[in-house]
Amino acid sequence: MNDSFVLVEHFTSNDLANDIFGLYRLLDLCNDDGSNGIVDKIIISKEQLKKLCNDMVPSSFKSISEINYTKLNSTSIRLIGCYGNRNLIAKFLLNRDIIKQQIYDLLTASISTDDINQPSLRPGIYLLKVNSNLGLIIHWPEIGCYVNSLSAASQIKRNMVNLHRYLTKLTDHQMCFMNDKDLENFDFNLENSDTNTDNDDDTDDDEYEVKKCQEEQEDFKIDDGFKVLF
User: The whole model's pTM is what?
Assistant: First the structure.
């Protein structure tokens, strides 16, 4: 074989969700027209959900209003959450032989959000079936999601928070993939000023009194954590 020969995989589209075996998009981050311009919305990926249901139980999903939940509930799969730095998530999948090198290179390529010609994976929540008994629920973040909080767009931060909430609803255990630089960008003293705005219009001053209800315990326990076998 010629050493210069390189096997190039043919991709069906610019959406890598169609080319990663066992990957299903559950929640998609899309742009939509709002009253104040373009806004981001998190929607259910109906076609991907249909494919997932029918792959697990044939003919279980006929339409969004006709899903055989009884048959789907008869199946069982353990779900582990993954979130953090997209490059580290991709490296983990590569090291576990879950994805190929070419897919890894595309997932970690430095591309702008406006580059629509380069195959990429859109931000959102994904299910990656590792085997018949184990699936990874992956929060695939937006570009610039973990940059310095002062420079990151507020919309990106809101999207990150909302997607992470969905991740914690779907899984009881999560694996975090971050490096020291990512952690340096976290402001652990920041109060939830721009994410919790439900009561911004309340002008009434309420007085509260905190009463001691039980003795505080100074000690704490560290659990052993959990193991994931691939």
Answer: 0.74
